[in-house]
């Protein structure tokens, strides 16, 4: 797996490079120290995952995330010293798949990377391929894609996973904790803002009127139902 690390702190890059050699020697880590360098390397190298620092000398990580997501669905983990909720929300809304605050343990970072790779690359279990239809919404499990009124819906890996989970349990109310644990992992059970942000993004993409959703229905205080 090829990983692009975008961070202007050279000491941090060196430490993380050693950590990958120790914990994930099979991964190839390339580093960029500016936003412009990162965007050029994305075009040339086609990484499987991007580790993106928010604070960079030229472009901030949020702008780079937005530019990446405009033309690629590569998984993105934001790295930052900021811990404010508004930064978390902004990063997720712009298309980041995860967000980790410095300082963090190398084992935690590796676990999150592994989780994203498993979800992005996992094949469907036998007998679960098929197509879900509800009105003008179609979810093709085998192709991992969705259409509305016959038009493809551009979804990030996490957005698709959430939509697929709801579709596979259509008609049932899935609790906030269940959705968070199944899509992001058990350690996210107490992070409802992740779920709210992704539900909002999904509604903007599949609903004719996101504020009056037809497909993804809220059960306040409980969860969501497709």
Topology:
Elements: E1 2-6, H1 10-23, E2 28-32, H2 35-45, E3 49-53, H3 61-71, E4 76-80, H4 85-93, E5 98-101, H5 106-121, E6 131-134, E7 137-140, E8 145-148, E9 151-153, H6 157-168, E10 174-175, H7 176-183, H8 192-206, E11 217-219, E12 223-225
Parallel strand pairs: 1-2, 1-3, 3-4, 4-5
Antiparallel strand pairs: 6-7, 7-8, 8-9, 10-12, 11-12
Helix pairs in contact: 2-3, 4-8, 6-8
Q: How do the helices and strands follow one another from N- to C-terminus? A: EHEHEHEHEHEEEEHEHHEE
Give the fraction of residues assigned to helices: 40-55%
| Sequence stretches where pLDDT stays below 50 over 5 or more residues | 123-128
Number of helices: 8
Radius of gyration: 18 Å
Overall body shape:
globular
Q: How many DSSP-defined strands?
A: 12
Overall residue-averaged pLDDT value: 87
Q: What percentage of amino acids are in beta strands? A: 15-25%
